[in-house]
Every structure is written in structure tokens, then in C-alpha cells.
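sry for the spam today, last one i promise. C-alpha cells for design, 822 residues
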């Protein structure tokens, strides 16, 4: 029997295709007014005082498991390189910035020398100005050219909101330069009538990788004058380009470089990230170019008080009678309410759109009981809003009209929300990089700030609030991406060939996997080789072969059966588990039941209902080893890394009571199996090791299954992934290894780099896993240690103590240090 734990991103793509810790960055103060203290008469309470007020009340203080104090720090100034135009320096001074920080001047110097550079300094350390100074200076010179368009620059942001915010900043900063700098946003929200003006006249175009992939590169002849003059490509928040998404963006950038070369341009890449480990390595892998690193942060920092907060246990019991904690959503709503009542300007970050809406609704209801004028001072902010709604919320937050905002990560990246006093983070956001990004939204004007991480009932969150050293004494994660993944590379080779026929010299640009892939693409009749190179053969757009966000497959439309109204979509990869027949589906707070899932037409028909239960899909999984790349002994056991094929089939779903999780019944389903070829890390144990760990056959399956769940829950601490990016299988006797085996695999075709990272950090990763299980206060297992929210077997069987003994014995034979990365 296989005990499995499936990722959301399982899907078929193109079919089978053959230290010394760095200092992590913490929130820094922008240099809008370098060196200046907060305005005199500032009566805002200190971060410690705000936290003391939050901790008042019955049992509140006991929920704070740790408080970290990061002291303020002064900054170090420099002078701008003499090649920065005096008009640009004057415009910067008019914005209130008398002198640059040392890292800003250094980054500008590299850029003007024609070196690609990554600026990896703290949140609000003025990275934008570090790349804007050389960019604006170059655009100003270009505007004075007697003939031609002059210089252009391209800005890439991971979100539309960040691009729009940056346009406002650039427009304000460059205002004294007149018409020399013409910034414009070009994305899905840009009206059709404006797009031609942007192509013809804008010299600083702000967009996102999606629009570059689908809109700009396929239409490059219409962008020829812009690309011919392209001097700089700015890649903001570059640490977000990780995993499958990062691998896609890396290939999009190679396509951009290829077309630029076609038009005679060789742009310099300027990358920025507040949170990145080995930033020059990650930036080089993303761009395919050598990148110089500027990481010595010379900006000042206000005081930061960072509290870890664990919600209390309730009287409720969930699956298998496990104790249930109060939800992080409810705790966060309480804290946002209290902060608003105090007049503290705050943002609460939550992982889901629904969670953001829910926190906002709860906070408004509670504020209305205090003062009827307060609910309008709180709102939600998430993706999916209309552009004008997002802009209005951003303006209200800037002006102080809004005191509190419940936001998804759409507000995490770079948007200048100066003046915030506190940030509440509802659940660990998945990486230390995101944690510091979110905490850095407060204190951006140099004042002190408070950050509170509220733990979810989850193994990783529980581990972190009781092991603060894992957050505050460790560097941020390495950015993991694999541009050579054949499932990523193949559609981009097709897109590149559609843009311009591929030639032999292009092979080196796109990587070592190209020679093997081109014949397969010819066989599939996607490309045809002629004398001039490889050509795209189809009528449809090659750029539509892939979704660079990693969804893959045609999205399933969710349609209201009675009215025909489109409610939304769900990724093809998640359709079998999310919108199977009988599934409960939530949309804008309303509950629907799925009446039919039509996989051929990619439509799920739903009707509004109000069932007193939720649904959870159950599935079966088989995994086979295709190739073992690396294998090392762990005592008698083995640690392996290689290629696997995963076959998954959703077979039924459970109906559970909403409050307690009690199972009300199980309904069979008839859905087709799906296969995934990917990369995995796996470990085996021998009979002697089982005897030493006192693991008998009756508890072996539960011990392996519990260790699998907990290890998946803890992996995001060591690789830049989310638990939903990875899957797992545990088997008491696997047919390929002939031993008890636990697999953890990437939930994306061809792999995303997460399993490889797990292999290289296995000793520390599995040590943390063992400690997380052993230190949990529950008796037999709970969501805080070994139960998984996405277990296909309904969290059966699980054996907490057996997992601890098994991991203890396995780790006894582990090498003292993890193998170095290759």
C-alpha cells in the first residue's frame, strides 16, 4: 500500500522528454530624507509599546513565544559617479535625497561600466534609486541624440501592482527632466488605444514577464525601434523568480537577449532583491550572464520588534480526536482590530484571497462594536480586483485614509507604503525571503516598526515559533530554479523559433539540453529544420504552449449551471481534487456544489448550495524509479536522488463536518489516472534499522507516513518552495528499492529544483523534521506535526512515536555534513 501526499501541480505537459551564513536582510529605512530622525512631535507609540498593548487580556501574553529586537543602525553616504548627469542628480536632490548611500553609488558605477549587477540590500534601502540613477541619466542622454529614438529601458516586475507603483515613483522623480523620460506601463490592464503609443514613444516601459512572453516578444517587429535602442533591463524583486516560474522567466530572458542581439542591442541587466542568498549566482542563472553583486547595505534602519505568536488550543477536536488550535485567521483578525483601535497603521498579510477577505470582514464587524466610524478605515487587498479598485486602495493606504489592510502577497513586493507602523503575518509565508519582505512593509520612513508572525496549525509554523533561531540566525534561502528542465525549455524553443528561426549559434544561449530536445520537437512536428535553421510549423501561437506561472494545461472553467455565469477557473492540475463531482466550491463567500466535471471541455458545472460539510478528495499513488542519479550511504540506509514517474488517481472524496472535521461519509469517483515524470529525493531503511528503532510491521506504515508528512511540511525551511509545490509517497516495501522507502518529489514535470535542494540539505532537513515531531505537545499526532491538509489517504495510518524513532535511527548513520551542491 502506498501512502501519498500529492502536490497541486501534477499535470501532463509535453509528454515524456528524454558556507558561511550570509547576513539576512532586515527592514531598512528609505533615503528619501537621509539621516533625518522622525519629525519632532511624532507621538506614535514605540513598537514595544504597541506589542505590550496587544499582549493585554486573558492569556494573550502566553501566546508570544519569542520577541526579537533588531536595533536601529545609521547609514553611510557616498557621492554619485561623475557620469550621472547633473540634471538627474538635481532631480534626486529635489526629491529630498542629498547624497546616495554607498551601495547605491556602487551599483550605479557598475551599471555605467556596462556590467550587469544585482543589488541585494535590505527592504527600503533605496534599491530603486540605485538602478534609476544610471537609467534616467542614460535616457536623458538618449533624448538629446540628433537622430533616432535614443536610449530605452525595460522594467520587469512580478506583479502589476508593483509596476504601477514604480511608474508613479519614476514619473515623480523624473518630472524635472521634462519629456526626456517617458515612463509607461504595458500589461494586461493597458487600454488597447494606449498600447500603440507605448510601443512608439515610451522610453521606459514597465511590464511583467507574462506580457513579455505573450505580448512583446512574439510581436517584436512592432517593438523593433524600442529593442534596437534598449540599454537597460531592470528586474525587480528577482528572488521571486524561483522554481518552475523562475525557470520559465530565465528562458523568456534568453529569448529577449536573442532578439535584442538581432536588432543590434546588448542591454545591461540590473537586478534588485531585498532577500537573496548568493545573489550573483542566482542572478546569473536567471539571466544567463555574469552578474556583479552589491550586497553591503549602507542604509540606516529603524528599530524592529519582531514577535512570534502561537494561537491557543481550543476545546474542539479534529481528525482522529487531535486537538485543534484557534485559527491563525481569527487571531490575525483580532490583532488587526486591536491595532486599528489603537490608531496604528497596519497591514495583515494572508496567503489566500479568501483569507484576506475574511480577515477584513471579521475586523470590520468587531470595529463596528467599538466605533461606527472605524470599519471604513479597514479594507482587503488582493489579486482579482479591477485595476481602479487596486489603485484606489493603494492611494488610501498612502494617504492614511485606511488604517488597516488585509492583503495577499500582491502587496508584498516593493510597493512603497510609507508610514506603516506594524505588520501582522498570518502564517509563515513559505520562505524567510518572503517573511522579511512582508515585515519590511512597515517602518519604511525610518521610524521603528512591529512585525508579528501568527502561526498556523501546521508543522512548519509550530516548529518556527518554538525555534526562533531558524528565522533570526539563518540566511535567507537559496533561489532554486532550473532553466534546463526539458518541460520548461521545449515550449520556449518553439516560441523562440516562431519569433525568429533558431540557428546553431542559438544553441549555446538556451543551454546544454537543446541538442537533445530539437530532434524530439521535430518528431512531434512542432519544429521543422531547413537550411536557415529550425522553424515553427503550426498556425497557432507558439507562446501559448506554456503558462510561465507553471499552471500547465487548459484551465477548467467553473460555470453556474442555472445561469451559465462564469464564476472563475481552476488550474487543470488541481481540477481532479478541487472540482470533482460532489465537491464543495467556495466563491466570494458563497458555497456551491459541483454537479458535473467535463474534462473533455474543461468545464465544471456548479449550483449554489449551503451544505453543512466540506469535501476532501482521496487518491492513490504509485511511484517508480526511472533513474538514480546519486546515491550515498546513510549507515545501512541509503539517500538517493534521481528521476521518478508518479501515477495518481483520485478515487473518492470524504464529507466532513465544518467545525470538527468529523467524517460523515465517503463517495467513490471515476476519474482517469494521471502521470508525472519528475525529480525526487528518497531514503531507505533496512530490517536491522527497523529492529534498532523498535518498529514492528504493524506500525511501520504509520511511522513512514508520519515522517513523510512532517518532512514535506519542513522542507520549505530549506528550499524556496511551498508544501503545495511538492508531493510524497511512503511505502513499507517498494518494488524498486525492495526496502521501506520515503519519497519526496517535485510536483512539476521535469522537476523544479526542490528535491535536489532537499538531497543536498538532507541531514539538517530531516533533523529538523524529527525535532518538530518530537517537540509537539500532542499525544498521537495533530496538524501541528504529522497530519497533512492534503493527504490523499485521510491521514491514515500515522504513528507519531514510530516516526521519531525511525528518523532517530536513520539520522544516526547520516554523514556529518551534507554533500556540497553541484
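last one done:
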Amino acid at each position: 500500500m502506498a501512502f501519498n501526499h500529492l502536490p497541486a501541480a501534477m499535470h501532463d505537459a509535453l509528454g515524456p522528454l528524454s558556507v558561511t551564513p550570509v547576513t539576512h536582510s532586515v527592514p531598512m529605512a528609505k533615503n528619501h530624507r537621509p539621516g533625518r530622525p522622525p519629525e519632532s512631535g511624532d507621538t506614535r507609540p514605540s513598537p514595544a509599546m504597541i506589542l505590550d498593548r496587544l499582549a493585554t487580556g486573558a492569556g494573550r501574553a502566553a501566546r508570544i513565544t519569542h520577541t526579537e529586537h533588531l536595533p536601529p543602525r545609521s547609514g553611510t553616504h557616498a557621492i554619485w559617479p561623475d557620469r550621472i548627469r547633473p540634471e538627474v542628480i538635481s532631480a534626486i536632490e529635489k526629491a529630498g535625497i542629498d547624497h546616495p548611500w554607498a551601495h547605491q553609488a556602487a551599483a550605479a558605477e557598475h551599471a555605467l561600466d556596462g556590467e550587469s549587477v544585482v543589488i541585494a540590500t535590505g527592504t527600503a534601502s533605496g534599491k530603486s534609486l540605485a538602478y534609476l540613477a544610471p537609467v534616467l541619466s542614460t535616457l536623458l542622454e538618449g533624448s538629446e541624440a540628433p537622430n533616432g529614438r535614443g536610449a530605452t529601458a525595460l522594467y520587469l516586475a512580478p506583479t502589476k501592482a508593483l509596476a504601477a507603483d514604480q511608474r508613479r515613483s519614476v514619473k515623480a522623480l523624473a518630472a524635472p527632466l521634462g519629456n526626456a523620460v517617458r515612463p509607461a506601463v504595458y500589461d494586461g490592464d493597458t487600454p488597447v488605444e494606449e498600447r500603440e503609443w507605448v510601443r512608439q514613444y515610451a522610453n521606459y516601459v514597465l511590464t511583467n514577464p507574462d506580457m513579455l512572453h505573450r505580448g512583446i516578444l512574439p510581436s517584436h517587429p512592432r517593438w523593433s525601434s524600442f529593442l534596437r535602442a534598449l540599454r537597460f533591463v531592470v528586474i525587480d524583486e528577482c528572488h521571486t523568480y524561483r522554481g518552475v516560474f523562475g525557470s520559465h522567466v530565465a528562458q523568456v530572458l534568453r529569448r529577449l537577449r536573442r532578439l535584442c542581439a538581432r536588432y543590434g542591442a546588448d542591454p545591461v541587466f540590473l537586478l534588485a532583491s531585498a532577500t537573496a542568498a548568493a545573489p550573483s549566482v542566482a542572478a546569473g542563472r536567471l539571466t544567463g550572464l555574469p552578474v556583479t553583486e552589491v550586497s553591503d547595505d549602507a542604509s540606516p534602519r529603524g528599530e524592529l520588534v519582531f514577535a512570534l505568536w502561537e494561537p491557543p488550543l481550543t476545546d474542539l477536536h479534529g481528525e482522529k480526536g487531535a486537538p485543534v488550535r484557534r485559527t491563525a485567521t481569527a487571531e490575525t483578525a483580532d490583532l488587526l482590530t486591536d491595532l486599528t483601535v489603537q490608531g496604528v497603521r497596519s497591514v495583515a498579510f494572508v496567503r489566500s484571497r479568501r483569507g484576506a477577505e475574511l480577515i477584513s470582514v471579521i475586523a470590520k464587524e468587531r470595529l463596528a462594536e467599538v466605533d461606527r466610524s472605524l470599519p471604513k478605515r479597514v479594507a482587503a487587498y488582493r489579486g482579482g480586483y479591477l485595476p481602479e479598485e487596486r489603485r484606489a486602495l493603494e492611494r488610501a493606504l498612502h494617504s492614511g485614509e485606511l488604517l488597516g489592510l488585509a492583503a495577499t502577497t500582491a502587496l508584498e513586493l516593493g510597493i512603497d507604503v510609507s508610514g506603516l507602523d506594524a505588520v501582522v503575518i498570518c502564517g509563515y509565508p513559505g520562505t524567510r525571503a518572503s517573511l522579511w519582505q512582508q515585515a519590511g512593509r512597515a517602518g519604511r520612513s525610518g521610524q521603528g516598526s512591529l512585525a508579528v508572525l501568527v502561526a498556523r496549525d501546521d508543522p512548519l509554523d509550530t516548529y518556527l515559533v518554538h525555534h526562533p533561531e531558524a528565522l533570526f540566525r539563518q540566511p535567507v534561502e537559496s533561489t532554486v530554479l532550473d532553466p534546463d528542465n526539458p518541460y520548461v525549455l521545449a515550449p520556449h524553443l518553439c516560441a523562440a523559433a516562431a519569433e525568429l528561426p533558431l540557428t546553431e549559434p542559438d544553441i549555446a544561449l538556451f543551454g546544454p539540453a537543446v541538442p537533445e530536445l530539437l530532434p524530439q520537437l521535430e518528431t512531434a512536428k512542432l519544429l521543422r529544420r531547413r537550411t536557415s535553421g529550425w522553424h515553427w510549423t503550426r498556425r497557432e501561437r507558439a507562446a501559448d504552449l506554456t503558462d510561465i506561472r507553471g499552471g500547465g494545461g487548459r484551465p477548467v472553467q467553473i460555470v453556474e449551471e442555472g445561469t451559465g455565469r462564469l464564476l472563475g477557473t481552476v488550474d487543470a492540475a488541481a481540477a481532479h481534487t478541487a472540482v470533482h463531482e460532489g465537491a464543495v466550491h467556495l466563491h466570494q463567500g458563497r458555497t456551491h456544489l459541483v454537479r458535473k466535471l467535463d474534462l473533455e471541455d474543461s468545464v465544471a458545472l456548479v449550483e449554489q448550495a449551503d451544505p453543512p460539510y466540506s469535501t476532501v478528495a482521496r487518491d492513490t499513488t504509485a511511484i517508480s524509479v526511472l533513474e538514480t542519479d546519486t546515491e550515498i550511504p546513510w549507515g545501512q540506509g541509503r539517500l538517493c536522488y534521481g528521476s521518478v514517474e508518479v501515477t495518481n488517481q483520485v478515487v473518492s472524496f470524504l464529507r466532513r463536518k465544518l467545525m470538527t472535521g468529523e467524517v460523515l461519509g465517503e463517495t467513490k469517483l471515476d476519474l482517469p489516472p494521471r502521470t508525472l515524470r519528475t525529480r525526487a529525493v528518497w531514503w531507505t531503511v533496512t530490517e536491522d534499522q527497523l529492529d534498532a528503532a523498535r518498529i514492528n510491521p504493524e506500525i511501520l506504515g504509520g511511522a513512514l507516513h508520519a515522517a513523510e508528512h512532517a518532512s514535506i511540511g519542513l522542507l520549505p525551511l530549506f528550499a524556496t518552495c511551498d508544501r503545495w509545490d511538492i508531493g510524497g509517497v511512503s511505502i513499507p516495501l517498494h518494488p524498486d528499492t525492495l526496502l521501506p522507502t520515503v519519497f519526496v518529489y517535485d510536483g512539476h514535470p521535469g522537476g523544479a529544483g526542490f528535491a535536489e535542494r532537499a538531497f543536498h540539505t538532507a541531514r539538517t532537513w530531516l533533523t529538523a523534521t524529527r525535532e518538530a515531531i518530537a517537540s509537539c505537545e500532542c499525544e498521537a499526532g495533530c496538524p501541528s506535526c504529522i497530519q497533512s491538509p492534503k493527504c490523499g489517504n485521510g491521514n491514515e495510518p500515522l504513528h507519531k512515536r514510530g516516526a521519531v524513532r525511525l528518523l532517530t535511527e536513520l539520522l544516526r548513520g547520516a554523514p556529518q555534513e551534507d554533500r556540497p551542491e553541484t
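Residues 1-41 have pLDDT under 50 and may be disordered. ok im logging off now
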